[in-house]
Amino acid sequence: MHAGSRKQLARGGYDGESHRARQFDPSWLPERDLVLAMDAANLRDLRAMAHPADQDRIRLFGEVAGLGAQDVPDPYYGSDADFAHVVALMETGMSSLALQLREQIQPH
Q1: What is the Cα–Cα distance from 26 to 49, expressed in whole angstroms?
Q2: What CATH number belongs to 24-105?
Q3: What is the pLDDT of residue 18?
Q4: Residues 34, 59: contact at Cβ < 8 Å?
Q5: Across all residues in the chain, what is the average pLDDT?
Q6: Long-range contacts of 25-34, Cβ-Cβ distance < 8 Å, separation of 24 or more
Q7: Is residue 73 scored above 80 in pLDDT?
Q8: I need a surface site. Which of 31, 45, 55, 82 has the fewest CB within 10 A?
Q9: What is the rounded radius of gyration, in angstroms, for the C-alpha atoms of the chain?
Q10: pTM of the prediction?
Q11: Vertex 38, ends 14 and 10: CA angle to 5°?
Q12: Is the CB of residue 87 less than 8 Å from the CB of residue 8?
């Protein structure tokens, strides 16, 4: 994990120490209900490696998480403020996404 990401996560009370990034493997798709891409380029790449039947389970995080379909920018070469902005986007989006998922899986 980038040091800037780890620093911003720690400021927000999150532990990023156990995070391990890895390339997405297309063989994972049949086992996943939802795959979230952070930006349009990731979305395009993920859908290109997917079977047509799996493509609608690959979505843009900003669309699904109520961020107006905006991309979550990659702050890798950015400032502390850029990393803080991404953490804020993720917190906002995850709150929205968690509510949506809770509504879908609660027994009616």
Answers
A1: 6
A2: 3.40.50.2300
A3: 87
A4: yes
A5: 91
A6: 26/50, 29/54, 29/57, 29/58, 30/54, 32/57, 33/57, 34/59, 34/64
A7: yes
A8: 31
A9: 15
A10: 0.85
A11: 15
A12: yes
Whole-angstrom Cα distance, residue 10 to residue 14?
5
Residue type, 59: R
Q: Where are the domains of the chain?
A: 24-105
DSSP letter (8 states) at residue 106: S
pLDDT in tens, 20-39: 888 999 999 989 999 999 99
What is the DSSP track for 28-93? GGGG-S-EEESSHHHHHHHHHTS-GGGGGGEEEHHHHTTSTT------TTS-HHHHHHHHHHHHHH
Q: Which of 102, 29, 104, 34 is nearest to 63 (CA)?
A: 34
Q: Which two tokens stand for residue 34?
A: 């939802």
